[in-house]
Design a protein that fits this description.
This protein is α/β, with parallel strands linked by helices. It has helices spanning about 40-50, 70-80, 95-105, 110-125, 140-150, 170-185, 195-200, 220-225, 225-235, 235-240, 245-250; strands spanning about 5-15, 15-25, 30-35, 55-60, 65, 80, 155-160, 190, 205-210, 215-220. It has 2 domains: about 1-80 and about 155-165 and about 175-250, Rossmann fold (3-Layer(aba) Sandwich); about 90-155. Helix 4 crosses helix 5. Keywords: ATP-binding, Nucleotide-binding, Transport.
Length: about 250
């Protein structure tokens, strides 16, 4: 049974159609990439799945429950949580307290919540900064802090919105390893990403949006050879370059 099913989802803002009849599913334990050009509707789709928007039509099923009209809080309590494209740390609170916000979603006892938060900070290589103010962290560390806060909720599904944007090449490699580590711990991931060299080698499946429409869905090897995807997003030269990044070895 899929962990997440998006069925014929349409999201309109007046006459603007941000998502148009989008359908796909995610099986437990997968890393699924959600890609496409700027303005394709990726973040709008995230907002619908996570309860920040209610779609104009269609259906969202998470863990065998119809959550189409659920609030963001209700969906998070069920185990579907997300990060944001623009990082949103609680700047005047410590790194530990930021992660405690996530931990308290599932654990009300302070001592146990602190234990969960520290485990998540260590997993995201932020333990030494637990008492620092979140606003003092550089951007790469703030991205990891969002992941730690999300992980502290005990998610079944983590949705990462451009978690690698603005990072150095070293930080991107660390983020990729962290995503794989989270998946190996039993968490399913849906990842919006523009850095194809990072997401393509680790994704089990890729969904491609363009102009609010789903134009392709499948394994990375098929996606980078899809003529419609090449024309709308990747470009011929970049598609050829991606074929040399290790995707073949992963798929075979």
């Amino acid at each position: 049974m899929p962990l997440l099913e998006v069925q014929h989802l349409t999201m309109k803002f007046g006459s603007l159609v941000a998502n148009n009849d989008v359908s796909f599913y995610i099986d437990p334990g997968q890393i699924v990439g959600l890609i496409g050009p700027n303005g394709a509707g990726k973040t709008t789709l995230f907002n619908c799945i996570s309860g920040f928007y209610h779609p104009s039509s269609g259906k969202i099923v998470f863990d065998d429950k119809d959550v189409t009209t659920f609030s963001a809080y209700q969906i998070a309590r069920l185990g579907a949580v997300r990060t944001f494209q623009v990082v949103k740390p609680l700047k005047e609170m410590t790194v530990l307290d930021n992660v405690l916000v996530g931990a308290f979603l599932r654990e009300k006892q302070t001592g146990k919540a602190i234990e969960i938060a520290d485990q998540c900070l260590d997993a995201c290589h932020l333990g030494e900064f637990r008492n620092s103010l979140a606003g003092s962290l550089p951007i790469g560390f703030k991205k990891r802090l969002e992941m730690a806060r999300t992980l502290a909720t005990g998610p079944k599904l983590m949705m990462l919105d451009e978690a690698m944007a603005g990072l150095t090449s070293t930080e991107i490699k660390e983020a990729v390893r962290l995503i794989q580590k989270i998946r190996d711990s039993g968490v399913t991931l849906l990842v919006v990403e523009h850095i194809m060299e990072a997401i393509m080698p680790i994704a089990d499946k890729v969904v491609v949006l363009e102009g609010g429409n789903k134009i392709a869905e499948g394994p990375p090897r098929e996606i980078i050879e899809d003529e419609q995807v090449i024309k709308a997003y990747l470009g011929e030269k970049f598609s050829q370059r991606l074929k040399t990044t290790g995707i073949k070895n992963k798929q075979e």
